[in-house]
Amino acid sequence: MPDTAELVLTPRLVLVTGPSGAGRSTAIRVLEDLGYEAIDNMPLSLLPRLIEGGGSTRPLALGIDVRNRDFSTNALIETIDGFGAQREAPVEVLYLDCRPDVLLRRYSETRRRHPLAPAQSPEIGVEREMDLLAPVRARADFLIDTSDLTPHDLRAEMERWFATSRGQSLAVSLNSFSYKRGAPRGLDIMFDTRFLRNPYWQPDLRDLDGTRAEVQAYVEGDPRFAAFFEKVVDLCDMLLPAYVAEGKSHLSIGFGCTGGQHRSVSLTEKLANALAQRGWQVSTRHRELERRQAAANV
């Protein structure tokens, strides 16, 4: 029985990062208000000593910033993976994202210098930081885009995912992805939707995506869709309450297809609606659609 006791007592660890100006400091303060022990801008080299020290059962939030004296993308990812292999409780990465134009506006309003371009324009610094953090963004377990959020909105979103109350509901993250780029890290459950008919081969649907009603209707028109989706929902109806009873706070479910544009997105959207109607806290992330949008904004 000692292994079970260790699992219960291992505190949650959340690493908070993102581009300068996206709201990382605000997020750290929110986590502190939620009962986390919060430490911001701690050198990466000191993190292992902090974690190994133990002594606290409070959840821990660590702010990671490019201004850290020994920061590097590879070092951060190695730290994340190293902690994940050593700890019973998961290491979760929260990435505060923001559109470049909004970051530039915020720098203009505050007249601050960008830490990666102190003697140059903020545009150069924002571009450098976005490139530097791209691998970390792809590694994130939680991604919150603060572009259109007020501090109050950000607090509400943070409370949804990170409140420490035992009575909170399981937070369910639904993800669509392309098998060409590999499955996202951190998925608890994964479904392959490539057996369903592909809207890509329909000229009028090829350039659309699974958030569109006409694409969803085409996918749902596959004779195998209804039985498959019913079984997925039945599985969720059985498993989600079991995970709540176990004490799990977050569950990540993924749907994959060839391009990550049509079938996986359609299933993600449909299951999100079904679970939300059942009262579950649900968020969606469409990895390949995000990549396309980011490329279009460059």
Terminal-residue CA separation: 54 Å
Total strands: the figure is: 9
Question: Under the CATH scheme, which class of the largest domain?
Answer: Alpha Beta
Query: Strand-residue fraction?
Result: 15-25%
Q: Reading side by side through the largest sheet, how are the strands ordered? A: 2-3-1-4-5
Q: Count of helical segments? A: 11
Give the topology string: H per helix, E per strand: HEHEHEHEHHEHEEHHEHEH
Helix content: 40-55%
So, the CATH homologous superfamily of the largest domain? P-loop containing nucleotide triphosphate hydrolases
Structural class: alpha/beta
Principal-axis shape equals globular
Biggest sheet details: 5 strands, parallel
**Mind telling me which CATH architecture of the largest domain this is?**
3-Layer(aba) Sandwich
Provide the low-confidence segments as ranges. Answer: 1-9
Describe the protein:
This protein has helices at 2-9, 24-33, 47-53, 73-86, 100-110, 122-139, 151-162, 213-220, 225-246, 263-277, 287-297; strands at residues 13-17, 37-40, 60-63, 91-97, 142-145, 171-178, 189-192, 250-257, 281-286. The chain has 298 residues and is α/β, with parallel strands linked by helices. The chain folds into 2 domains: 8-162, 3-Layer(aba) Sandwich (Rossmann fold); 171-297, no CATH class. The strands form 2 sheets. A 5-stranded parallel beta sheet has the order 2-3-1-4-5, with helices on both faces. Strands 7-8-6-9 form a 4-stranded parallel beta sheet. Helix 3 (47-53) links the parallel strand 2 (37-40) and strand 3 (60-63). Helix 2 crosses helix 7 (151-162). The radius of gyration is 20 Å and the shape is globular. It starts with a helix and ends with a helix.
